[in-house]
Every structure is written in C-alpha cells, then in structure tokens.
Design brief:
Elements (H helix, E strand, L loop, with lengths): L1 H12 L2 H8 L16 H13 L3 E6 L7 H21 L3 E5 L10 H18 L3 E3 L7 H12 L5 E6 L5 H8 L5 E5 L14 H18 L2 E5 L3 H13 L7 E6 L4 H9 L4 E7 L4 H10 L4 H8 L2
Parallel strand pairs: 1-2, 1-8, 2-3, 3-4, 4-5, 5-6, 6-7, 7-8
C-alpha cells in the first residue's frame, strides 16, 4: 500500500492540473506544516523563530514547470528579493534554488545568466547559495554548471543524492574543488537503471558518501531525519576528528522538530530547509511520497 501511495504522490507532484486544483484549497489542507507560507514576509518570520531556538535556515522560493524566459526571469527576481530580505532582516539563512526554475529546461545560457546574477547579489551580502539537485535527467547538466561556476565563485554549493549509482563517482570527481555538498537520500522516482531501488542499498550508499566526502576534505551538509543515520554520522565525525566548521545537520521545515532541537542542545549546527511560495504543490506531494503516513495528517486538516 505504501509503495502505491508513494507512486501516486510522485505522479501528482508532476501534474500541473492537479496542482492547480489543489491550490484552490490553499495551504490550509495540510501543506502549511511543511511550507512556511506563500510570501517572503512569512518565510522570514519562520526563520526568525528558528534562529531564536539556535537553528539556522535555508530559504527556497518554490517554483516548478517554468516554460518561458519570462517565467525564468520572474523566478530569478524572486531569488534576488529573497536575498534582499535575508540581508535586510539580518536573519541567519542562505538561499536554495532549482536550475529548472531559472530556465535550464529552456537553455543553458539563460539559466547561467540568471544564476550568475543571483550569485553576484549573494556575494555582495556575504550569503551562500545552494543549487538543488532535481531528477536524474538534469543531474549531469547541474554538476557541469556547478563546476563552471566554481572556477570564479566560492559562495555556491550543490546537492548529491544517495539513491543514484553515479553519486560516489560524482563526489570523487568534485574532490579537487573541496565542495560544499548537501548529502541527501533523494526524493524523486527514478528508474532502477540509474538508482538503487532498495532502501537498504540507499542507506549504505549514503553512509559511503558521507565518509568519502568528509575524508576528501569538503564541507558536508548531512541532510536526513533518520536517527540511525545521524548517529552513524556523529560516530564518523568523532572517529575522523572532523572539526565543527566542516559539517552541519540539515532537516526539513515541519519534520522531526524534536530531533532538530535535541541536536542543537548537543551543540551541533542544525540548518532547516524552509520552502515558501504559491507554487508549493509539487514539493508537498514529494514530502507525502517520502512518508505516506502523512496523508492522515492531510485528511484531518481537510475536515477541520
């Protein structure tokens, strides 16, 4: 049953028509647990609340299905507005973005132009930008763009997904850059031709990626809600004598807040990924696909 629900939610995430229908209900039917509102002001207030409890944040203006240059430019300007808001509010946060929202599906040149504009603004404020990883079809292009950027720009990082077979090679190929990598299990539905179908295999590869990257000397943003994986990472960090300025733990807004706060109390740096914006549906569906039990939470909200 869980596998069926996971497939269903992942299909919904890619459906523009289902997304339009769901947005009529707004965030009230459950997405507000995982999305910090539709406006930048609401997102900044969510970050303030996190900062007050010792957590830092990553802000992500949600956007999918960009199909025109005008839409890509609008997304770019929203990223600039987000950077401006972080700087003006003085909150502890950085920016995350998807290259498809900046026009990668239209042309590499358009995407690079928009991305460079964002990175220049971030550098002006002393802020960091994370390039999110999307489904497998964009993986090679995303890594290629990241490598080009790192020739001139340091305030940028990327995401590596543990469920892809290629990821260990990607980490080795990026080794010379001493990259800042966000290491995740992965949330897209992929073919077994390119991704591990078994959770146990994904978990083992995740462990391999963490240890390899730490030993390579890069900064590791270890993104997981899995207590066993976190304990494994803690022991690895201790065994390798990794200093605190070489890693952090990351989790998603609205998920495992108890664990987030426990890590803060233990002295670890915890960064919370805070998504916002009106185009929240695809993100919300992927969260449900990761843990279909959350569907009962949604149903309860529908009937309130």
């Amino acid at each position: 049953m869980e596998a069926l629900l996971r497939t269903l939610f992942q299909s919904f995430a890619k459906s523009q028509s289902v997304g339009r229908m769901a947005r009529r209900y707004g965030l009230r039917f459950g997405a507000s647990r995982f999305v910090a509102g539709e406006t930048i002001d609401g997102a900044i207030e969510a970050v303030r609340a996190l900062n007050a409890t010792g957590r830092v944040a990553t802000l992500d203006h949600l956007g999918e299905f960009v199909s025109t240059e005008a839409e890509a430019e609008l997304s770019m300007r929203m990223c600039l507005k987000t950077l401006d808001a972080i700087n003006e509010a003085g909150v502890e946060a950085n920016l995350s973005l998807k290259l498809t929202s900046l026009g990668l599906g239209i042309s590499d040149e358009l995407c690079m132009r928009n991305l460079t504009t964002i990175l220049n603004r971030a550098r002006l404020y002393g802020l960091f930008v994370r390039i999110d990883m999307e489904d497998f079809t964009y993986c090679e292009k995303t890594i290629s763009i990241y490598k080009q950027l790192r020739e001139q720009i340091d305030n940028v990082g990327i995401v590596i997904q543990a469920y892809l077979y290629r990821s260990i090679d990607d980490i080795e190929n990026l080794k010379a850059l001493k990259p800042n990598l966000r290491l995740v299990k992965g949330a897209y539905k992929e073919s077994p031709k390119v991704a591990y179908p078994s959770k146990s295999d994904v978990d083992e590869n995740f462990k391999r990626l963490i240890s390899t990257h730490l030993m390579n000397g890069g900064y590791a943003a270890i993104a997981t809600h899995d207590s066993q994986m976190i304990n494994h990472a803690k022991k690895l960090i201790q065994d390798l004598s990794i200093p605190p300025d070489r890693y952090e733990f990351q989790m998603l807004y609205g998920i495992r807040e108890d664990l987030q706060l426990a890590l803060v109390r233990e002295g670890y740096k915890v960064r919370v990924y805070v998504p916002f914006g009106s185009d929240w549906f695809g993100y919300f569906m992927r969260r449900l696909a990761e843990r279909p039990a959350n569907v009962w939470f949604v149903l309860k909200n529908l009937f309130k």
